[in-house]
TrEMBL record:
CDD domains noted in UniProt: HAD_Pase_UmpH-like (cd07530)
GO CC terms of this entry: cytoplasm
Keyword Hydrolase: yes
UniProt name for this protein: HAD family hydrolase
Gene Ontology MF terms: phosphatase activity
The organism of origin for this protein: Pauljensenia hongkongensis
Alphabetically ordered keywords of this record: Hydrolase
Length: 274
């Protein structure tokens, strides 16, 4: 099928990039330290007046919390320029069933977003059970979630990540706990966070940008780049985080560009190209 027949264009024929989405960990910061070129990349976006979002699958912290943590790392990123899996989940729920009810297992980042979406959080016959990241999972809360799902509540989870890093080593993440609930109920959740392109498209909507004019920068082929590809963005993989150059061939899709770090993208921002 030709490009004209299916109304798509090769990425090289798309208009110049004028909006940028960037993953946070492994792209802009690592172990709470700003990566080389991160601050200059953000400055370049501001100097061009380009809308941008910093994305993370972490649903624990509010946007304000993350903005403060990034500032401690030396990066000036206002909370309105942050888009988390909690934000995306709340936007998804608001679109699917406005002003409804949910039983929520999560920290302030998720509960704040769900409240802001106009939802009532309740244990009594909720329409949804929403699972996010928490610092410690409560057996009673998980049992309640299982029984509500068995009773007909729809199962939503913020992100599919099965593990996360900590100073002490690997921690179980949302995907692992979701798998436990699935094993008990036979019901799989709908994951809203990356690699679901729903998170990307919802983020673009918040900054008034279109996929044809946007680029996604990430350090993981399986989440960041996949989500960007499926949302129709030009994707840029940086090798400062999870995916190594040798692993790229393991995937059936390719990033638009491959770079050692975020600093190599500053020139692209200045040139207003993909």
């Amino acid at each position: 099928m030709t490009a004209s027949a299916n109304h798509t264009k090769p990425l090289t024929d798309l208009p110049p990039v004028s909006a940028w989405l960037s993953d946070m960990d492994g792209v802009l910061v690592k172990e709470e330290r700003a990566l080389p070129g991160a601050s200059q990349f953000l400055d370049a976006l501001r100097s061009k007046g380009y809308p941008f979002l910093v994305l993370t699958n972490n649903s624990v912290f509010t946007n304000r919390d993350l903005s403060a943590r990034l500032a401690h790392s030396g990066l000036d990123i206002p909370e309105d320029n942050i888009w988390t899996s909690a934000n995306a989940t709340a936007a998804f729920l608001q679109q699917q069933s406005p002003n409804s009810t949910a039983y929520v297992i999560g920290e302030a980042g998720l509960t704040t977003a769900i409240h802001s979406a106009g939802y009532v959080m309740t244990e009594t016959d909720p329409e949804y059970v929403v699972l996010g990241e928490v610092r410690s999972y409560d057996f009673h809360a998980l049992t309640r979630a299982i029984r509500l799902i068995e009773g007909g509540a729809k199962f939503i989870a913020t992100n599919p990540d099965v593990s996360g890093p900590s100073d002490e080593g690997t921690l179980p993440a949302c995907g692992s706990i979701a798998a436990m609930i699935t094993a008990a109920t036979g019901k799989k959740p709908y994951f809203v966070g990356k690699p679901n392109p729903v998170m990307i498209r919802a983020g673009l909507n918040t900054i008034g940008a279109h996929s044809e004019h946007a680029a996604m920068v990430g350090d993981r082929m399986d989440t960041d780049i996949r989500a960007g590809v499926e949302a129709g963005l030009r994707t840029h993989l940086v090798l400062s985080g999870s995916t190594s150059v040798d692993e790229i061939e393991n995937y059936p899709y390719r990033p638009f560009g491959i770079h050692e770090g975020i600093g190599e993208l500053i020139e692209l921002v200045g040139a207003a190209i993909g």
